Amino acid sequence: MSIITATTATTATAKRLIIGGLTASLVAGAATAAVAAAGEAAGISLVVNGAPIPASGFAVLTVVFSLAGLVLAVALARWARRARTAFVRATLVLTALSLVPDVLVGASVATKVLLMVTHVVAAAIVIPAIARRLSA
Q1: pLDDT by position in tens, the chain (length 136)
Q2: Cα separation, 127 vs 103, whole angstroms
Q3: What is the value of pTM for the model shown?
Q4: What is the CA radius of gyration of the chain?
Q5: How far apart are CA 86 and CA 100, in angstroms?
Q6: Is 36 within 8 Å of 44 (Cβ atoms)?
């Protein structure tokens, strides 16, 4: 494989990873906002530590943290031997850790569960979408 061919293949792979990751981030943001809105419509409070969280806030934070995951994926794609395995393991651990603050916040049990569900929904969308674009 020539240097030009290898560079073109690497650029195409990175572009595919980034576009897929950005798309997954937006889809996950919309999904978490929908879950939050559905929870609120079902009577679950979105008040955490005395402050209401708008459904749009779920979308924004989901996109921000999904983009952080995408940055991790791009770095792993470049430097890790088994990028997919490293990404999935790291993001599963990070998802589990993201549930800890949900347990500790000042909110009703139903609100805490709703917060945790949004984290799992986002992870279920973003992790596979990015992982399938990484080398095994």
Answers
A1: 445 444 444 677 889 999 999 999 999 999 999 999 999 999 999 999 999 999 999 999 999 999 999 999 999 999 999 999 999 999 999 999 999 999 999 999 999 999 999 999 999 999 999 999 999 8
A2: 22
A3: 0.90
A4: 17
A5: 22
A6: no
